[in-house]
């Protein structure tokens, strides 16, 4: 029987993290992903979560603890990805449930996230996990 576990990841998992985040961000170069991931590790409020199956990393997610006026202390999930070869097998549900438990244990009042507009599969997934749309996320590039 396979064993699943969720662990907090450090820079020692960088190569494996990048393999998975590349699946979510195929237009970014490997050097761009590496540079950004290393910068993320430098923030005190950043946590990188890893989902393992029998010690093989099969999912990653970034987490940012912040405080917002509308929600109080929150965990914002970012870059949530399960290896594309293993999607639709229940790993995402297991992974997000464990991340939510971690957020509760760390005194977060909410878990929040953004998902790409065109990613219909993720919308259904998050709705099924009890998430709701609060608004629109706007971006201005420089």
From TrEMBL:
Signal peptide: none annotated. Pfam families: Acetyltransf_1. InterPro entries: Acyl_CoA_acyltransferase (IPR016181), GNAT_dom (IPR000182). SUPFAM superfamilies: Acyl-CoA N-acyltransferases (Nat). Gene3D superfamilies: 3.40.630.30. Residues 1-142 form the N-acetyltransferase domain. This is GNAT family N-acetyltransferase. It comes from Lutibacter holmesii.
